[in-house]
Design goal:
Oligomer: homodimer
CATH topology of the domain at 77-173 in chain A: Dna Topoisomerase Vi A Subunit, Chain: A, domain 2
Largest interface: A-B, 65 and 64 residues
Order of helices and strands of chain A: HHHEEEHEHEHEH
Shape of chain A: globular
Structural class of chain A: alpha/beta
CATH class of the domain at 77-173 in chain A: Alpha Beta
Number of helices of chain A: 7
Strand content of chain A: 5-15%
Distance between the termini of chain A: 84 Å
CATH architecture of the domain at 77-173 in chain A: 3-Layer(aba) Sandwich
Strand order of the largest sheet of chain A: 4-3-5-6
Helix content of chain A: 25-40%
Largest sheet of chain A: 4 strands, parallel
Number of strands of chain A: 6
Radius of gyration of chain A: 22 Å
């Protein structure tokens, strides 16, 4: 007697789904079952979206945000934006939260990650050289470091500040403190410490 | 100034990923970023696997397990299996755990779900009629109800037992009790109650 197993096409689908980050054996089985039972149209749609995305979507040659067919992204090709403000983010996905808050009118630079020797990410793996080049071409600009406030983000900010210091630019960073709507009771000591250190005058 | 947004190809990928069960906006963004940054090969592979699976994988016309191109599945086409044992499971994915335990040598029947009026699943949505047909063609067989031990599974088992009672077959169900390796301290009261009710003689 041969043990029953999934048809090879299902096994291949399971293997492909399991390669996605955060998806394990059980999750892949649940997704495959869903695609085969209720989601046949969704499967075709996702297959097409994946093919199209990986074949047409690349990075903006200037800032590193997503763009199609090697063109400049919307922000970089928008001449009404303030090119003297350069917001430095880790990932292309960090651009959208900043756009959504509606207050920033400058340009972006996506670093491609943060310095993290434990994960094998060193400064030369990030688009630091290109950042310095852009800053050199924009004398008097302000570079806003919008990196995450964890250890690697801090280290990256310090490294970049050092690299940028000989150039004719201002360097600033996002304020650290209490998030909107949060009570003191839920703030961790480091957040509170930074909120105290960064306190601003009212009267 | 136009707000920066993802290129339409990325937006379409995000929308398709978000349709998957258990994947929200953040999860879809994380997956899309991964596909576009590290997983371009995986994206092509998953796209191909999805297309192939939904176009070739269907269900075994006899038991409802996965099979390709409308053929009988491995179990149903295996003449060395004991056709007088019919293991009834909810989903095709429930077949594999039973196969893996290595003790079952009979055939399967996938119901396609369990009766759950709250989710709009009624007996006529499940392959009950086909089960009765199979049992009628196999007089003297044993139907083993291997349904989940939640409320819907119990209700489905009771309903099926009633439907099967006029037919010339035995009906049994999986034992309920302590899972292997579990201590009494972690067993919930219902599990313990069922373990007591189903106790078996030793001496």
């Amino acid at each position: 007697m041969k043990a029953q197993d999934y048809p090879p096409e299902v096994l291949e689908l399971l293997a492909s789904l399991k390669r996605m980050p955060g998806v394990g054996s059980k999750g892949a089985e649940r997704l495959a079952l869903w695609f085969l039972q209720q989601g046949r149209n969704e499967a075709q749609r996702l297959a097409a979206a994946l093919s199209t995305a990986v074949s047409t979507v690349g990075y903006c040659p200037c800032c590193g945000f997503f763009s199609t067919e090697g063109k400049l992204c919307t922000a970089c090709s928008d001449t009404t934006r303030d090119s003297s403000l350069l917001c430095l983010v880790e990932q292309p996905t960090d651009v959208l939260p900043i756009e959504r808050c509606g207050i920033f009118r400058g340009l972006y630079h996506c670093l491609g990650g943060k310095i993290s020797p434990l994960d094998g990410v060193m400064p030369e793996d990030l688009s630091v050289e290109k950042l310095l080049e852009r800053v050199r071409a924009l004398p008097g600009c302000e570079v806003i470091l919008a990196l995450s406030s964890d250890v690697e983000g801090e280290a990256t900010a310090l490294y970049l500040a050092e690299q940028l210091s000989p150039l004719p630019c201002k360097v600033s960073r996002l304020a650290q403190g209490l998030p909107a709507g949060a009570g003191l009771g839920h703030a961790d000591p480091i957040t509170l410490m930074r909120a105290l250190q960064g306190r601003s005058g009212l009267l």
